[in-house]
Write a structure and sequence with these properties.
The complex is a heterodimer of chains A (256) and B (357). Chain A has 256 residues and is of the alpha/beta class. Chain A has a domain of 172 residues: Rossmann fold (3-Layer(aba) Sandwich), CATH 3.40.50.300. In chain A, helix 3 runs parallel beside helix 6 and helix 4 packs across helix 6. Chain A has a six-stranded mixed sheet, with helices on both faces. A four-stranded antiparallel sheet of chain A has the order 2-1-4-5, with helices on one face. Chain B is an all-alpha fold and 357 residues long. Chain B folds into three domains: 68 residues; 53 residues, no CATH class; 228 residues, MetI-like (MetI-like fold), CATH 1.10.3720. Helices cover 68% and strands 1% of the residues of chain B. In chain B, helix 5 crosses helix 7, helix 6 packs across helix 7 and helix 12 packs antiparallel against helix 13. The longest helix of chain B is centred in the first third of the chain and has 41 residues. Chain B is flat, with a radius of gyration of 29 Å. The chains are: A alpha/beta (256), B mainly alpha (357). At the A-B interface, helix 2, strand 6, helix 3 and helix 6 of A face helix 8 and helix 9 of B.
Chain lengths: 256, 357
């Protein structure tokens, strides 16, 4: 349950999603706070990534998906007819499980978002690239080789580049789909620190398999199981005194 | 086999264990050896055939290359009587080498702009043929590259699944079209249509022929480009879309550049096909060796020259050698294109676009 003090950024109500005939989300209702980190946890196939991808309508890319219910962002239901999906996605950044930098230079990766938004001025772009790379805690490592290929970076650097690329368009919300699952502990550590810094400016939703990670970085945690939202509360509450037995079993490692 | 049987018989039912298999007994697998050898032979054969064809073409053209390298005199003018020589000079002109049908020819005697292999004093200038080949290849690629790459972009990223499963096989079917049918179609239909439309002088020319060649080239460039585009990880598309790119921006700015090495290879293979295609060039291009840069003039290519003249050439004559020399040029060109595709692209472009992995 969301604390009264929080501002609601995203209001999800009765969201159900089907892949063909298979139901992946069942009547999810939850309110996601602004400028906080919200973690989605749960065993594989519980629908947490699907829910995340529903927030920027990435599920639209998959054939045979049908969705009912509402996802309200600033008083607009993003599933209404006539929603401008391109603008929606510009307002919601996304970082994927596997880092996916474009096969371009580091600079062009970060500048991609601003450029498709019409920023042409070189000085302005330079500034955005520098700020975003600093925001992604990567600037010091790459400032001397902005023109080299993004694919020459290490896995952890690539993922931070993807974060920098996502924040370069200055989104309000940052969706992170298991951003550390393919990274070593040191890179993971860096990205977790980064997430905590970033919540000053962005509302962050992070999907994670790693319970400790959810505990470390998030303010709120939602536990999902087979397409249902089982429990959603402050992270401390979920981890120390969950209301539902299933949540406790999962967190203590009895299943999942 | 007998050993295996023995081993098996020693094992009692329910007591089978791999521990009883000897590790020191020499493996016997004649069946597998035979299969391996068979596969090896078959795959070597194709290489051997290519090599043999090249060796044959090279051997038939070798007098020209030999005379060129040894620097002997260009023409066997000595065979002609003084009267004949005077008359020959009147006919052929001062600017061209005087040859007969069994002259020894060097490459330098081939570099001028008159292709008249059947005259009494033949002239074998390959310049019109070089121009014709360049023009028709250029026109073919001019039509084929944009059409096939846009078609590939469409089917790879925009078309609904069902439509894609229809379009791709249909375009690939075009690759199986006999080129004589395409040539015939261009000769009869396209030529008249295009002349009515543009009103130029010659009905058959390198635009009509080049268009026909593009029909043969499009399926090659299309299908390889489509494969290249679809082999770019979909996660890049997702990343671009999640940043707020439109479908077109994602396809054009992210996926297309990432697929560039593959598309470049596709274009080069298409180029090789356009260069070497015979029947379409023969039928739809007017087949006149005119040394002109104008694409609306009739033209003839290396391949169509060989196709048209090899059938009635005197075996072993200078004309025969020149035709084989054209074959060598064709072969070397196609081979270098494939070589370039294989090595330049794999080494350079992939590094450039995919990073120094």
């Amino acid at each position: 349950m969301l604390s009264e003090k929080e501002t609601v950024k995203i209001d999800i109500s009765d969201l159900s999603l089907f892949y063909g005939k298979k139901q992946a989300l069942n009547n999810i209702s939850m309110r996601i706070p602004e400028k906080r980190v919200t973690a989605f946890i749960g065993p594989s196939g519980c629908g947490k990534s699907t829910l995340l991808r529903s927030i920027n309508r990435m599920n639209d890319l998959i054939d045979g998906v049908s969705i009912s219910g509402k996802v309200v962002l600033d008083n607009v239901n993003i599933y209404d007819n006539g929603i401008n999906i391109v603008n929606l996605r510009k307002r919601i950044g996304m970082v994927f499980q596997k880092s996916n930098p474009f096969p371009k230079s580091i600079y062009d990766n970060v500048a991609y978002g601003p450029r498709i938004n019409g920023v042409k001025n070189k000085a302005e772009l330079d500034e955005i690239v520098e700020n975003s790379l600093q925001g992604g805690a990567l600037w010091d490592e790459v400032k001397d080789r902005l023109d080299s290929s993004a694919l020459s970076l290490s896995g952890g650097q690539q993922q931070r580049l993807c974060i920098a690329r996502a924040i370069a368009v200055n989104p309000e919300i940052l969706l992170m789909d298991e951003p550390c699952s393919a990274l070593d502990p040191i890179s993971t550590d860096k990205i977790e620190d980064l997430i905590i810094q970033l919540k000053e400016k962005y509302s962050i939703i992070i999907v994670t398999h790693n319970m400790q990670q959810a505990g470390r970085v998030s303010d709120y945690t939602a536990f999902f199981y087979i397409g249902e939202l089982i429990e959603y509360d402050k992270t401390r509450k979920i981890f120390t005194d969950p209301n539902v037995k299933q949540t406790e079993d999962y967190i203590t490692g009895r299943f999942g | 086999m007998s050993e295996q049987k023995q081993e098996k018989s020693e094992v009692k039912p329910g007591e089978f264990s791999t521990a009883s298999l000897s590790l020191t007994t020499k493996e016997r697998r004649f069946g597998e050896r035979a299969i391996e050898l068979g596969i090896y032979t078959v795959s070597s054969l194709s290489i051997i055939f290519i090599f043999l064809i090249f060796a044959f073409v090279l051997r038939e053209a070798s007098p020209i290359i030999g005379y060129t390298l040894s620097g002997e005199q260009t023409e066997k003018s000595a065979e002609l009587t003084p009267e004949e020589l005077t008359r020959a000079k009147e006919i052929v002109g001062e600017d061209y080498p005087i040859l007969t049908h069994n002259s020894e020819i060097t490459v330098s005697a081939l570099i001028h702009d008159k292709w008249e292999p059947n005259s009494t004093y033949p002239r074998y200038g390959i310049w019109p043929i070089v121009l014709g080949t360049l023009k028709s290849t250029f026109v073919a690629l001019f039509f084929a590259i944009p059409l096939s790459i846009f078609a590939a972009l469409y089917t790879a990223f925009f078309a609904p699944l069902r439509l894609r499963e229809f379009i791709k096989p249909v375009i690939e079917l075009l690759a199986g079209f006999p080129s004589v049918v395409i040539g015939f179609f261009c000769l009869i239909t396209i030529a008249t249509f295009a002349q009515d439309l543009f009103g130029y002088e010659f009905r058959l020319n390198s635009v009509v022929g080049g268009f026909g060649l593009s029909l043969a080239v499009i399926p090659i460039i299309y299908t390889l480009s489509e494969d290249a585009l679809r082999s770019v990880p979909g996660s890049l598309n997702e990343a671009a879309l999640a940043l707020g790119a439109t479908k077109w921006q994602a396809a054009y700015q992210v996926m297309l550049p990432a697929a560039t090495p593959g598309i470049f290879a596709a274009i080069l293979l298409g180029l090789g096909r356009a260069f070497g295609e015979t029947m379409i060039a023969l039928m739809a291009m007017g087949n006149a060796p005119i040394p002109s840069w104008d694409v609306f003039d009739p033209a003839r290519t290396f391949a169509s020259t060989i196709g048209a003249e090899m059938g009635e050439v005197v075996f072993g004559s200078s004309h025969y050698q020149v035709l084989f020399f054209l074959g060598v040029v064709l072969f070397v060109f196609s081979f270098s294109i494939n070589f370039l595709t294989e090595f330049y692209i794999k080494n350079k472009l992939i590094k450039k676009f995919r990073g120094n992995e």
